[in-house]
Structure formats: C-alpha cells, structure tokens
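Can anyone check this?
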Amino acid sequence: MQGPQEASLPATDNASPMLTPPEWLPPPLLTVWELIADQPWLAFAIIVCLSYLIAKLVQLLVQNSVAKLASRTRTQLDDQLIALTRKPIFLTVFFFGLALATHQLPLPDGFTAVLVNILKTLVVLSWLGAGWPFCRLLLQSLSRNQDRFPLIEERTIPLFDITSKLLLIGGTSYAVLMIWQINPTAWLTSAGVIGIAVGFAAKDTLANLFAGFFILADAPYKIGDFVVLDSGERGQVTHVGIRSTRLETRDDIQITLPNASIANAKIINETGGKWEKERIRLKVGVAYGSDVDQVCDVLQDIAIHHEHICLEPAPRVRMRGFGDSSLDFELLCWIDEPVLRGRLSHELYMEIYKTFGKEEIEIPFPKRDVYLYQMPMDAGD
C-alpha cells in the first residue's frame, strides 16, 4: 500500500531571496558564499559593515577631491559647503547599503518596503538639513558682491532667506510624498481651497505682507533714512518689517504705518540720492533800497564760516523776486545729515539777524501809511 504522498510546502513571501553566486568565484569562496546565503542575518551584518566602510571611503574621496578644487578659490563658501555635505554624503551611501541589507532578512510581508521608504525619507531630510544653512551662507556671500547682485543686500537677506526655505520645504515635502507613493494632487487642491478662504478672511493682513515683500525688494527707504509722508509726518525709519514700518519723529513719537498704505503713497526720502547730504533753503527779505551785492556777500559769508555747513557743494545766494515790501533772497547751503536741518536753520537765522543789524541792512516788515483828510466844514455850522 502506497503511503500518502507528502504535500510540498508552498513558498512564502517572507523567505529571503537566494543570492546567486558569480561564475568567476573560485571554489573556496563559493563555500563562503553559500554559507552567507543560508544565513540571512549574517548576510545582513556583512552588507551593513561593507556599506559603512564604503560610505566612509566615498566621503573621504569626495571631500578630498572637492577640497583640492576649493583650495584654488578665494571665497570660503565652497569650504563651508564641503563641511555641510559631509554628513548627507555618508548617510546617502550608508542608507543605500542598509536598503540592500534589509532585503536579505526574513521580514513580514510589506515590512521591507516600509523600512526602505523610511531610509529614503531620512536621506531626503539629511539633504534638507544641509540645504537649510547653505541658503543663508549663499545669500550672505552674494550680498557682499552688490555690483553683480544689486537686489541681494543685507536688508533683503531675510526676504530671500524665507523664500528659499519655503522652496526647500516644498521640494522636500513633494519628494517625501512621492517616496511613500502619496498623490499630492488632493493635498494641493485642499490647500488651494483653504488658501482662498484664508485670503478672503485676512485680506488686509495679506496686503500688508505682500507690500512688505515689495518694500524689502524695491527698497524705497531703509533703516536710518529720514522720510516725509503724504500726510506731512517726517521721521527717521527705525524698523522695516513684513507687516508695518515704524518712524520716529523729532518729537520722539513713534508712528507705525501699515505697509499696504506706504506702498501706494508718495514717499519723500531725504536721505536718498547719491549722498546723505541735504540742502536747506533759508528765505530772507531785505528792504527796498538795500545794497543787493552786500546782501549776497553777507549771506554767503555767514554760511561759509559756519562749522557744520558743507563747503562742497559751496553755499550760494539767489534773489528770487520782488515782494510787496521786500526784496526776496534765498540762502542755499548743504548739511551733512538731514537730522541737523532744524538746529542749523535756527543757528543761521540767528546769525543773519545779528549780522544784518551790524551791517545796517534793514529787514522789512509790513507797513501802512495812513493819510487823514480834513473834512470840509458844514456851511451851516
């Protein structure tokens, strides 16, 4: 009687794939290969060790070769880039070896794919960690060369820094979603709907936010400048933020202005131009009959001998017209900083009044002549 035939065991997905030995291996190494193939944990440990050694070797080769090229340049940016990429290069090679090693283990169904995706995600995050400080270093390096990159300055670095980090986060998020085979279309659609709702709810805040970006990029003024607004306020810019700009007036009063209102207003920047100097105009009137040449010489001499008046450009005097009761002159002179305008105008006016008194130059004031006519006597009186 024939015994029952033994049923063959079905192959399971958990079994590790058999490593096929290369044909060029000598017989002694074939025995070692078969031993490793029969012991998945031993194969895992060997691949991990080899991956670590190869990662270290690749790290040293890349660092040394790039360091030789970096030594020929004058900038320190490439040296800092080498230091930032040491860890991501090592982790990329090492995690690639770990992904190969996990395929040799008898893990539950689907668990290997999860581990490989985790390793890929860690590699992407490691490069994100290197790109984060590198963007800041790159912007600082470009800001020092303003002849070639005039838009990137010290005050605009925060704007470009935030933009670059948002791009890094967006690119990293997309890569992670693709690694885990998640369709980002639904997420982007949801984000778009939420963005529209938030935009309607906070339209004023967003208007100030975008206006702040444009102000930082266009730079109509910077911190320390003296500006005059449409409404007449004059002050020094003390803060330029994403939402608002702050001015400090000469009365030590701080004015906070939303960026949206500034972006659509006419701004007079007294510190702008080719230099920080500012020209002040002093209107002076003298009586008719005065020696106009003497008046011009006196006014110009007062400005030249004042210690805080610039000699280049030189002060000048101009006659502007004939007033109702005076000859109208204007003293034009330059000062080093706009903040000195009030004090120096006071000192010059004081000196003009004293000097005109010594030189017997009359400063006119409105006069009225009253003529009295004698009324005719009534014949009946």
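Reply from J.R.: I decoded it. Strands lie at 226-228, 234-240, 244-249, 254-258, 268-269, 278-286, 316-322, 327-335.
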